[in-house]
Amino acid sequence: MTEFQSGNLYVVSTPIGNLEDITYRAIKILSSVDLILCEDTRRTKILCSHYNIKTPLKSYYSYIERKRIREIIPYIKTGHNVALVSDSGTPSISDPGYVIINECINENIKVVPVPGATAFVAGVVCSGLPLEKIVFLGFLPKKVGKIKRLFYDLGSIKNLTVVFYQSPRRVKQTLELLMSIFGQNVKCVIAKELTKIHEQFIRGNIKEVYDKIYQTDIKGEYVIMFFKD
Protein backbone atom coordinates (compact mmCIF):
# COMPACT_ATOMS: atom_id res chain seq x y z
CA MET A 1 0.00 0.00 0.00
CA THR A 2 1.45 3.37 -0.98
CA GLU A 3 1.79 6.34 1.35
CA PHE A 4 -0.44 8.51 -0.80
CA GLN A 5 -4.05 8.47 -1.81
CA SER A 6 -5.51 11.25 -3.96
CA GLY A 7 -6.68 14.42 -2.33
CA ASN A 8 -5.20 14.31 1.16
CA LEU A 9 -4.17 17.09 3.52
CA TYR A 10 -0.96 16.18 5.36
CA VAL A 11 -0.38 18.07 8.63
CA VAL A 12 3.39 18.01 8.89
CA SER A 13 5.46 18.92 11.95
CA THR A 14 8.71 20.75 11.22
CA PRO A 15 11.75 21.56 13.41
CA ILE A 16 11.37 24.12 16.19
CA GLY A 17 14.99 25.22 15.84
CA ASN A 18 17.47 22.53 14.91
CA LEU A 19 16.89 21.59 11.26
CA GLU A 20 17.83 17.97 11.99
CA ASP A 21 14.71 17.51 14.14
CA ILE A 22 12.52 16.29 11.30
CA THR A 23 11.38 12.77 10.48
CA TYR A 24 12.26 10.81 7.34
CA ARG A 25 8.55 10.51 6.64
CA ALA A 26 8.07 14.29 6.83
CA ILE A 27 10.85 14.85 4.30
CA LYS A 28 9.36 12.19 2.01
CA ILE A 29 5.90 13.75 2.15
CA LEU A 30 7.10 17.33 1.70
CA SER A 31 9.05 16.17 -1.34
CA SER A 32 6.12 14.27 -2.85
CA VAL A 33 3.01 16.40 -2.36
CA ASP A 34 1.83 18.82 -5.03
CA LEU A 35 1.90 21.89 -2.79
CA ILE A 36 3.15 23.00 0.64
CA LEU A 37 1.10 25.55 2.58
CA CYS A 38 3.28 27.51 5.00
CA GLU A 39 3.09 30.55 7.25
CA ASP A 40 6.12 32.28 5.78
CA THR A 41 7.50 31.00 2.48
CA ARG A 42 10.91 32.47 3.34
CA ARG A 43 11.17 30.40 6.53
CA THR A 44 9.96 27.18 4.91
CA LYS A 45 12.27 27.74 1.92
CA ILE A 46 15.25 27.44 4.29
CA LEU A 47 14.06 24.01 5.42
CA CYS A 48 13.27 22.91 1.87
CA SER A 49 16.67 24.04 0.58
CA HIS A 50 18.40 22.16 3.39
CA TYR A 51 16.72 18.90 2.34
CA ASN A 52 16.60 19.61 -1.41
CA ILE A 53 12.79 19.71 -1.43
CA LYS A 54 11.52 21.25 -4.69
CA THR A 55 7.78 21.30 -3.98
CA PRO A 56 6.01 24.64 -4.69
CA LEU A 57 5.18 26.78 -1.65
CA LYS A 58 2.12 28.93 -0.98
CA SER A 59 1.65 31.21 2.01
CA TYR A 60 -0.98 30.31 4.58
CA TYR A 61 -1.25 32.49 7.69
CA SER A 62 -4.06 33.62 9.96
CA TYR A 63 -5.13 36.72 8.00
CA ILE A 64 -5.65 34.88 4.72
CA GLU A 65 -6.93 31.51 5.97
CA ARG A 66 -10.45 31.94 4.60
CA LYS A 67 -9.18 33.13 1.23
CA ARG A 68 -6.75 30.22 0.93
CA ILE A 69 -9.40 27.67 1.88
CA ARG A 70 -11.54 28.75 -1.05
CA GLU A 71 -8.59 27.96 -3.31
CA ILE A 72 -7.19 24.87 -1.62
CA ILE A 73 -10.30 22.77 -0.93
CA PRO A 74 -11.22 22.49 -4.64
CA TYR A 75 -7.54 21.90 -5.44
CA ILE A 76 -7.40 18.93 -3.05
CA LYS A 77 -10.74 17.61 -4.29
CA THR A 78 -9.39 17.43 -7.85
CA GLY A 79 -6.82 14.89 -6.66
CA HIS A 80 -3.92 16.98 -5.41
CA ASN A 81 -2.05 16.24 -2.20
CA VAL A 82 -1.23 19.21 0.02
CA ALA A 83 1.06 19.49 3.05
CA LEU A 84 0.39 22.04 5.78
CA VAL A 85 3.33 23.29 7.84
CA SER A 86 3.92 26.15 10.26
CA ASP A 87 7.11 28.17 10.66
CA SER A 88 8.18 25.72 13.34
CA GLY A 89 6.60 22.88 15.26
CA THR A 90 3.15 21.44 14.66
CA PRO A 91 0.42 23.30 12.74
CA SER A 92 -2.68 24.41 14.69
CA ILE A 93 -0.86 24.31 18.06
CA SER A 94 -0.64 28.07 18.71
CA ASP A 95 -0.19 28.39 14.93
CA PRO A 96 -2.57 28.52 11.93
CA GLY A 97 -4.10 25.23 10.88
CA TYR A 98 -7.37 24.62 12.71
CA VAL A 99 -9.55 26.33 10.11
CA ILE A 100 -8.36 24.37 7.08
CA ILE A 101 -8.15 21.09 9.00
CA ASN A 102 -11.73 21.48 10.19
CA GLU A 103 -12.91 22.45 6.71
CA CYS A 104 -11.21 19.40 5.18
CA ILE A 105 -12.95 17.17 7.72
CA ASN A 106 -16.29 18.78 6.87
CA GLU A 107 -15.61 18.18 3.17
CA ASN A 108 -14.70 14.52 3.76
CA ILE A 109 -11.09 15.13 2.78
CA LYS A 110 -8.68 12.82 4.57
CA VAL A 111 -6.45 14.63 7.08
CA VAL A 112 -3.21 12.78 7.79
CA PRO A 113 -1.00 13.64 10.80
CA VAL A 114 2.76 13.54 10.32
CA PRO A 115 3.98 14.00 13.91
CA GLY A 116 7.18 15.60 15.06
CA ALA A 117 8.51 18.50 17.10
CA THR A 118 6.29 20.62 19.36
CA ALA A 119 7.90 23.18 21.65
CA PHE A 120 5.74 22.68 24.73
CA VAL A 121 6.19 18.89 24.65
CA ALA A 122 9.95 19.21 24.30
CA GLY A 123 10.01 21.64 27.19
CA VAL A 124 7.75 19.82 29.62
CA VAL A 125 9.34 16.37 29.23
CA CYS A 126 12.72 17.81 30.28
CA SER A 127 11.34 20.14 32.93
CA GLY A 128 11.61 17.72 35.83
CA LEU A 129 8.03 18.54 36.83
CA PRO A 130 5.42 15.80 37.45
CA LEU A 131 3.59 14.92 34.26
CA GLU A 132 0.62 12.86 35.46
CA LYS A 133 -1.70 15.81 34.74
CA ILE A 134 -0.78 18.54 32.27
CA VAL A 135 -2.71 21.49 30.89
CA PHE A 136 -1.37 23.47 27.92
CA LEU A 137 -2.66 27.03 27.61
CA GLY A 138 -0.96 28.09 24.38
CA PHE A 139 -0.13 31.82 24.32
CA LEU A 140 -1.63 33.65 27.28
CA PRO A 141 -4.08 36.51 26.73
CA LYS A 142 -2.47 39.95 26.62
CA LYS A 143 -4.74 41.51 29.26
CA VAL A 144 -3.78 40.89 32.88
CA GLY A 145 -7.40 40.47 33.96
CA LYS A 146 -7.96 37.63 31.51
CA ILE A 147 -4.75 35.92 32.62
CA LYS A 148 -5.82 36.14 36.26
CA ARG A 149 -9.21 34.59 35.50
CA LEU A 150 -7.50 31.81 33.55
CA PHE A 151 -5.20 30.96 36.46
CA TYR A 152 -7.92 31.29 39.08
CA ASP A 153 -10.02 28.79 37.11
CA LEU A 154 -7.20 26.28 37.59
CA GLY A 155 -7.04 26.93 41.32
CA SER A 156 -9.13 23.94 42.41
CA ILE A 157 -7.15 21.36 40.38
CA LYS A 158 -4.46 19.65 42.44
CA ASN A 159 -1.14 18.15 41.32
CA LEU A 160 -1.25 19.90 37.95
CA THR A 161 1.59 21.01 35.69
CA VAL A 162 0.63 24.10 33.71
CA VAL A 163 2.44 24.89 30.44
CA PHE A 164 2.17 27.95 28.23
CA TYR A 165 4.04 30.13 25.77
CA GLN A 166 4.97 33.73 26.47
CA SER A 167 6.66 36.49 24.49
CA PRO A 168 9.99 37.81 25.83
CA ARG A 169 8.59 41.22 26.74
CA ARG A 170 5.96 39.67 29.04
CA VAL A 171 8.01 37.01 30.83
CA LYS A 172 8.86 39.07 33.92
CA GLN A 173 5.34 40.45 34.27
CA THR A 174 3.89 36.94 33.99
CA LEU A 175 6.18 35.57 36.70
CA GLU A 176 5.20 38.47 38.97
CA LEU A 177 1.56 37.64 38.35
CA LEU A 178 2.12 33.96 39.12
CA MET A 179 3.77 34.87 42.44
CA SER A 180 0.85 37.13 43.36
CA ILE A 181 -1.64 34.28 42.74
CA PHE A 182 0.21 31.12 43.80
CA GLY A 183 2.99 32.43 46.07
CA GLN A 184 6.75 32.33 45.64
CA ASN A 185 7.41 28.67 46.40
CA VAL A 186 5.60 27.02 43.51
CA LYS A 187 7.97 24.94 41.38
CA CYS A 188 8.68 26.64 38.08
CA VAL A 189 10.73 25.94 34.95
CA ILE A 190 11.39 28.14 31.95
CA ALA A 191 12.68 26.61 28.71
CA LYS A 192 14.35 29.07 26.37
CA GLU A 193 15.40 28.67 22.72
CA LEU A 194 14.69 24.93 22.64
CA THR A 195 16.91 22.84 20.30
CA LYS A 196 18.97 25.91 19.38
CA ILE A 197 22.56 26.81 20.29
CA HIS A 198 21.49 28.88 23.30
CA GLU A 199 18.97 26.36 24.66
CA GLN A 200 18.51 26.82 28.39
CA PHE A 201 16.37 25.50 31.23
CA ILE A 202 15.92 27.73 34.28
CA ARG A 203 14.58 25.80 37.28
CA GLY A 204 13.59 26.60 40.85
CA ASN A 205 10.63 28.09 42.64
CA ILE A 206 8.96 31.04 40.93
CA LYS A 207 10.95 33.61 42.95
CA GLU A 208 14.26 31.92 42.13
CA VAL A 209 13.39 31.71 38.44
CA TYR A 210 12.28 35.34 38.46
CA ASP A 211 15.56 36.46 40.05
CA LYS A 212 17.57 34.57 37.43
CA ILE A 213 15.47 35.94 34.57
CA TYR A 214 15.61 39.48 35.96
CA GLN A 215 19.39 39.51 35.58
CA THR A 216 19.39 38.33 31.97
CA ASP A 217 18.69 39.91 28.60
CA ILE A 218 15.34 38.36 27.70
CA LYS A 219 15.30 37.34 24.07
CA GLY A 220 14.05 34.34 22.12
CA GLU A 221 11.10 32.01 22.59
CA TYR A 222 9.90 30.88 26.00
CA VAL A 223 7.97 27.92 27.37
CA ILE A 224 6.90 28.59 30.96
CA MET A 225 5.86 25.73 33.23
CA PHE A 226 4.82 25.50 36.88
CA PHE A 227 3.48 22.79 39.18
CA LYS A 228 0.68 23.38 41.64
CA ASP A 229 0.20 20.64 44.25
| Strand composition percent | 15-25%
Oligomer: single chain
The H-and-E topology, N to C, reads as EHEHEHEHEHEHEHEEHE
The poorly predicted ranges are: none
Largest sheet: 5 strands, parallel
Terminal Cα separation, in Å?
Answer: 49 Å
| Helical content (DSSP H or I, runs of 4+) | 25-40%
Count of all domains: 2
Report on this structure.
The protein is an alpha/beta fold and about 230 residues long. The protein folds into two domains: about 10-115, Tetrapyrrole methylase, N-terminal domain (Cobalt-precorrin-4 Transmethylase, domain 1, 3-Layer(aba) Sandwich); about 120-229, 2-Layer Sandwich (Methyltransferase, Cobalt-precorrin-4 Transmethylase, Domain 2), CATH 3.30.950. About 35% of the residues lie in helices and about 25% in strands. It contains eight helices and ten strands. The chain has helices spanning about 25-30, 40-50, 65-75, 100-105, 120-125, 145-155, 170-180, 205-215, and strands spanning about 10, 35-40, 55-60, 80-85, 110-115, 135-140, 160-165, 185-190, 200-205, 220-229. It has a five-stranded parallel sheet with strand order 3-2-4-1-5, with helices on both faces. Strands 6-7-10-8-9 form a five-stranded mixed sheet, sandwiched between helices. The longest helix has 13 residues, at about 65-75. The chain starts with 7 loop residues before the first strand and ends with a strand. About 30% of the residues are buried.
